[in-house]
Structure formats: C-alpha cells, structure tokens
Amino acid sequence: MAYGEPDGSAKGTWRARYKRPDGNWGSKSGFTSETAAENWGREQEALIRRNMWIDPRDAETPFGEFAEELLTALGPRLEPSTLAKYRCHLGNQLLPQWAAWPLIGIFNSYVEIEKWVSELHDDYAESTVSSIFATFSTFLNAAVKAHMIPANPCSGIRVTAGEFEPSKLVATPVQVLRAAMRLYETAGPPSFVLGVMDAYTGARWGELAGQQRHEYNRELRSIRIEAPLKEIGGRLFKGGRPIGPGGVAEGPAPRRRPSGRPGRGKKGRTKSPAGTRDVLLPPSIAALYEGAMDSHDNPFVFCTPDGNPWRRSNFRLRYWRPAWDGVNPDQPSAEDHVPAILSWFTFNEGRHTHSSWLTEDGVSEVARRARLGQKMKGIARVYDHVTPAMEEHLLEAQESRWVASMAALNTRDRARLMLWFPQLREATEPARSEIAPDGIAISSPSAS
C-alpha cells in the first residue's frame, strides 16, 4: 500500500512510495505533507489496477530514441517505400525538432506542436505537411499503445487549411490520342502506347511503368498487375528486388508462400489486395501493346532506349508535360510554339479519366472498381461480382471510344498514325465510313 515518508531534504518535504506493477517500489519526492504524498501514491496504484498507469521513467524517453526503437521493430514488416518515407520524415523534419524532447514533454506541449505545424506550412506544400504530420502522429500513437503517454497530442490538430481541392481534369479520347502522338514524336512508339494505356486502363504509374513482357497474356489480351515498379531512395524496385542496368533484376528473388492457400508476398506488392488484378485490353489497345513488346527485347515493356524502366520524374518533365502543356503555348509567334492540349493534365488524371469514361458508358460499379483495383463497399462487396457480360460491355465501350478518336483526326494525322501503326488500319476504316463528313472533328497533335 502506498505511503509517505520524509525525503531527507533540508526543505522538510515528503516522498511518496507506491508498489509498481513489477513488485518493486516506486517513489516521487517534493510533496509538502505526508498526506499529499500518500494520496499521490494511492492514485498511482489505482491507475496500475485499472491498467492506465504510465511509468514516469518511460514517459521521459526522448522521442528520437523511441522512434529508432520503433522503426527497428516495425522495419522488417513495412513496405520498403513506407520505411523510406518514415526515414525521410524523421531525418529531415521530425528529429531536428523533437529528437531530444521526452515523450511526456511532447504530450504536454500542444501549443508547440501547433507552432511547428505552422512553420512547416511556410516551407512545404500542404500535402507534404499532411504527410509529415501523419508520420509524427503514427509514432505518437505507438507511444500511446506502449503506455508511454496517456493520449496522442496530435489528435484534434488541424493540419490543412481547409481549402477546396481543385477539380480533377478529365480528357477526351481525342485529346489522349493527340498527346500520345506527341509522345511518339519525342520519346518513341512505346511511350505512345504508355500514354494511351494511361487513359484506357486506369492503372497507376508504377503499375504500367513496371509492366514486363511475361505479365501479358496474349490469349486473353490482358496485363497482370501484381508487382508495380517502385522508386525508393533513388533506386527502382520490382517485386522487392532492385533493378539494375538494362532493366535486369538484381539479388535473389523474394521467398514465396508455400503452395496451398494462396497469398501474397509482403514486399513489392500492390497498394491493396484489390490492386492485384488482371486488366483486359480493348482489341486495338492490345494490338498497340503487343507491338510495343515486339519492338525490343528488354524485360520492361515501357523503357528507355538502353532498356531501363522509366523514372516518373524524368518522363514527366521531359516528355509528359510538353505533350500536354505544349511549348510556349502563349506565344504563337515563337519558332518552337506548340499549343497546349490540356494544361496541367497529370498521369494520375488519366486514371480519373478512365473511371469517368466507364461511368459515362454505363459500366457497372463493381466492374469499374475491379478494373481500377478498388474493393466494393458495404454489402455489395459480398454479393456483387464481375461477369463476362460486364467485361464485354466495358471492352466494347472502350474500343468504340478509341475508334472514334482515330476517325476524328484530320486526314494527314490519320495517315501518320496508320504509318506508325499499320495494325490499326482495320479498326479505323469501318468507323470512318459511319461518320458523316461534316461530323468529323478536325484535330492534330500540333493544333490547339
């Protein structure tokens, strides 16, 4: 039972003694009376009985020490990209500010946390601040679970400014085709196909850029999305293995789950279990993809001339942005003037575009979500399933959009497209005969 005793100091103060969970005696000095010391000790023992007690010694653990200990424990189970993100945030933003702070000090410093978040907003974009703060909150949540602080001080702190997010851009099939033709001229035929498949599959960047020839099923005309390409610490990884020169994987293959109940390896996987999927391609898009594969013998279908897979930032800055934004679009008299097609259109907005097209075409929600690698919500997740008829409807709608976009090109640009991809000639001829001469939208990859 807790009690109070003189602490032997010249001030005549008292020390509280109480029984810790491990059976040893804990103490705290500085009380003005024996009663006050005894009451405090009884409060500690009551908290211990209710499993709500925080060991003062644990609460004084510096944040930097706790963070490193937690990463050591979690690291083997984390995705490499997640671990790299945590390391980046710790090294650049969290440890410089909080490394020496005791956890209980952070818990009691709400105003300091608010000031720190405001300072982050001065240096970083709102999305970056949200990501940094989420990492900080994750570590403090772990401290709560470890009974080192009573609650997460990040709870209730508003990180974003609450501004409305800008609407996502949705491209038309003709705009997608025009931008892809520009990619052909600057980065080659496979990049044309990559630009088209962005809008006609709804796959993410890493899911498409990471496609290898063995992941294509020629019989079903489908791509297998299972191990997307990831960039971690400046290196590219596929299926948990680093990618070396020429797109060749280095190091041993990750261990697979033994035969029996199917499962997924934890390294190099998709964003969610639903993200592991097969994506059927419309006939014309499949023909383009097979042509891209046959144009070289490198492991990655979409690659640089030396066989290396594309890096997101390089492809975006050198090829994607000029294709959509144009060159000197506001200066028609400039020698290198190229008008914009849809300024600021991003690769991710190709995914939004694909989803919007499917909705316009009346594709069922379960088929849309399955194609995008998303799980259904609610009871529909249990009872709604994709049928062959749904898949056929989806592919027919996508093929119709593609054919119509080719027919909408002017004669010169359509001829160039047929010269680049002769396999498309069969698909475009019937569509041209069905469109009245005055119904053709004249467009060009170099026109506004």
From TrEMBL:
Q: Which UniProt keywords apply?
A: DNA recombination, DNA-binding
GO BP terms: namely: DNA integration; DNA recombination
Query: Basic residues bias: where?
Result: 254-270
Provide the GO MF annotations for this entry: DNA binding
**Domain of life of the organism in this record?**
Bacteria
For region Disordered, the annotated ranges are: 236-277
| Name of protein | Core-binding (CB) domain-containing protein
Which organism is this entry from? Saccharopolyspora shandongensis
**Lineage, please?**
Bacteria, Bacillati, Actinomycetota, Actinomycetes, Pseudonocardiales
